[in-house]
Amino acid sequence: MKKILINPKRDLIFDLKVKESCKSCKRYSQKATCPPHVDSLEYYEKLLKTYKYGIIYYEQSKSNKEQWEEIGKKSSLDMHMHLLKIRDELFLKGHYFAVAFGAGSCKLCKECSFPCKNSSKSLIPMEGTGLNVVEIMKRKRIKINFPVTESIYRIGMVLYD
């Protein structure tokens, strides 16, 4: 897993179109951690830019159409667990304001419940906050091509003070 250090005040890019694109996801409205069940873009833009430090973690997995779902789920869960581990390690080091945002919708439970039964372990996807992940990565010199045909990128983030 690779990482990029970021300055949340300078490097986070919010775009209402990103949050709007969540409506085309098959999990829209079905996950407690996804839109429309999360706070507004304005809320996240104001909140997330108050953190002093940030780390974006990313991983690229090669895939073909037949493996897409299996690799997608595994890579999402791997990133999810990694982000939780980093968040918890930061907290134990005294960074009591530490928060993580996931790569895609939460896949911890077989069936999502409202409200979330695992709120201490569930993560809101970066895109669900309105973060333009593709543009953030582009500015960090990592290009994500669309449509995705050969690779799955998993990108998550931890912010802390």
Characterize the structure shown:
With 161 residues, the protein is α+β, with helices and mostly antiparallel strands. It has one domain (2-160). It has helices at 8-11, 16-21, 41-48, 68-92, 133-139, and strands spanning 2-6, 53-62, 98-101, 151-160. Strands 1-2-4-3 form a 4-stranded antiparallel beta sheet. It starts with a strand and ends with a strand.
Number of strands: 4
The chain-level mean pLDDT equals: 90
What overall geometry do the principal axes of the alpha carbons give?
globular
Determine the number of helices (DSSP H or I, runs of at least 4 residues).
5
Q: List the domain count as a whole number.
A: 1
Percent of residues in β-strands: 15-25%
Query: What is the end-to-end distance?
Result: 23 Å
Strand order of the largest sheet: 1-2-4-3
Helical content class: 25-40%
Spans of at least 5 consecutive residues whose pLDDT stays below 50 are none
Query: Main β-sheet, in a few words?
Result: 4 strands, antiparallel
Radius of gyration: 15 Å
Order of helices and strands: EHHHEHEHE
SS-based class: alpha+beta
Give the topology.
Blueprint: E1 2-6, H1 8-11, H2 16-21, H3 41-48, E2 53-62, H4 68-92, E3 98-101, H5 133-139, E4 151-160
Antiparallel strand pairs: 1-2, 2-4, 3-4
Short description:
By secondary structure, the protein is α+β, with helices and mostly antiparallel strands.
Keywords:
161 residues, alpha+beta, four-stranded antiparallel beta sheet, 5 helices, globular
